[in-house]
UniProtKB/TrEMBL annotation:
The chain crosses the membrane at residues 58-78, 90-113, 119-140, 152-174, 186-203, 245-268, 280-303, 315-333, 339-361, 373-398, 404-423. This is MFS transporter. The keyword Transmembrane applies. It is found in: Cell membrane. InterPro entries: MFS, MFS_trans_sf. It holds the Pfam family MFS_1. It comes from Lentzea sokolovensis. Keywords: Cell membrane, Membrane, Transmembrane, Transmembrane helix. Coiled coil: none annotated. It is a multi-pass membrane protein.
Length: 446
């Protein structure tokens, strides 16, 4: 394995925030993800921790499907359209549209609706949100030099994830003030509108076309372009070995994380008790979110430096080994303190892997197809988690205590590392054939 031959100069957050376009793009993301965090936590509280409703593994799995399947169903369409339409307009219109459906969802919660009526409204909110998330990611290379994409992406993604945690914490606070029943949950969920409309307003300040796409490499017929989105994204991904290998590692991590999340939810709801200042129940989920947010923050600070020191390959493999060890060492005791520590370590390491893959897409994939690759990325990312949650729901006991599932999750991280190494060998073959530029050497493991 090799490391970078030349030490890269780090800009730091102050330098990035001095770029007006980057600052505005970051503010757009922060407002949007605050609203997302509040909406998701409000909806989770309404469905999973509502004294007027019952939650079993099947209901939890259905809730995850609502929150995550839109990424899978709508992702290919967002990619094709983001590579065709002005990304600024897409972000603005999408935020306004989903703010409207947040209100519909809140009304459904307040009316005591469950099942299909509630889920359809929430599906629309999360589905339209893909236009915002994918659009912001695809637009980042338009506001930052590619030499600093790792650092810029780390700052943007980390700040956005932390803001989502803050939004979730706000939902818990509002729920305490407004009530845990259907009425209080409805009011809590509706407050997410504030973040979404603020995000739309900030994005509207960009000039038309400044976020791309610079070129449109698609058919003139929009329907044909949409239909081709997933296929084009898959072809571009396969042609970029750094993205293919990283995506395999990330999908394994996401599947294992889905299993762990289901276990954690059931333990918090039915099994664990308060330990001193640490709380079980929905308060415990808030603590898990804070621990995870701290892990995301630390990953944002350290990832660029770790990659510079060890290279992308060693970084990804080391992160997967760390998650496997944390899954076994901290997950198996199934106590409140150990779960919080495991959440921190697993989310920290997972965020490192995600930042490496995000940067590979932004650096190695052309702008004319980047939106479709990010859409495919989102699609597979969330299919992996929904599938893992659904399978786990069929075998896990109601109290969540399942050492066997914890060991299965740990093994998935190792499977991801093996897949990464195998697919990275293909990249070296491509490089030896002279099809990958020397500038791309930062993404090799050897």
């Amino acid at each position: 394995m090799t490391t970078l031959a030349v030490e890269k100069h780090h800009w730091g957050s102050r330098r990035f925030l001095g770029i007006p376009a980057y600052r505005r793009l970051l503010a757009t993301r922060l407002a949007s993800q605050w609203g997302d965090g509040l909406f998701q936590a409000g909806l989770a509280g309404a469905v999973l921790f509502n004294p007027e409703r019952q939650a079993d593994p099947a209901a939890i799995a259905a809730g995850f499907a609502v929150l995550l399947l839109p990424y899978s169903l709508i992702g290919p369409f967002t990619g094709a359209l983001l590579d065709r339409w002005d990304r600024k307009k897409v972000i603005v219109v999408a935020n306004i549209a989903r703010a409207t459906f947040v209100l519909f969802t809140a009304l459904a919660v307040g009316a005591g609706l469950s099942g299909l009526p509630l889920y359809v409204s929430a599906l629309v909110v999360m589905g339209i949100g893909r236009f915002v998330g994918s659009g912001l990611s695809a637009a980042l290379p338009h506001v930052v030099d590619e030499d600093h994409l790792v650092e810029a992406n780390a700052l943007t993604t980390t700040a956005g994830a932390v803001m989502a945690v803050i939004g979730a914490a706000c939902a818990i606070g509002f729920r305490t003030l407004l009530g845990a029943g259907d009425g209080g949950s409805a009011w809590t969920t509706s407050i997410a509108v504030v973040g979404l409309l603020l995000s739309a307003f900030i994005a509207s300040r960009f000039k038309a076309g400044v976020l791309g796409p610079d070129e449109v490499d698609e058919p003139h017929n929009a329907l044909t372009a949409v239909a081709r989105g997933l296929v084009d994204g898959a072809k571009a991904t396969w042609r970029t070995p750094s993205v293919t290998a990283g995506l395999a590692a990330l999908l394994a991590h996401r599947a294992a994380f889905g299993m762990s999340l289901m276990i954690t939810l059931l333990l918090m709801r039915y099994s664990l008790e308060d330990v001193g200042i640490l709380k079980a129940g929905i308060g415990g989920l808030g603590e898990v979110a804070v621990a995870g947010g701290a892990g995301v923050l630390l990953a944002g600070i350290l990832t660029d430096r770790i990659v510079d020191r060890f290279g992308v390959g060693r970084t990804i493999c080391g992160a997967l080994l760390l998650t496997a060890a944390a899954q076994v060492g901290l997950g198996l005791p199934m106590t409140l303190p150990s779960i919080l520590m495991a959440s921190f370590v697993i989310i920290f390491a997972g965020q490192i892997v995600k930042l490496c893959v995000d940067t590979a897409v932004q650096h190695d994939v052309g702008d004319e197809v980047r939106g479709r690759v990010f859409a495919l990325y989102d699609t597979l990312f969330n299919i992996a988690q929904v599938t893992a949650v659904t399978i786990t729901a069929t075998v896990i006991p109601l109290d969540g205590r399942s050492p066997g599932l914890i060991l299965v999750a740990a093994s998935l991280y190792l499977v991801g590392m093996a897949a990464y190494l195998l697919l990275s060998a293909r990249k070296r073959q491509v490089q030896h054939a002279g099809l990958v530029s020397e500038d791309d050497s930062r993404h090799t493991i050897g």
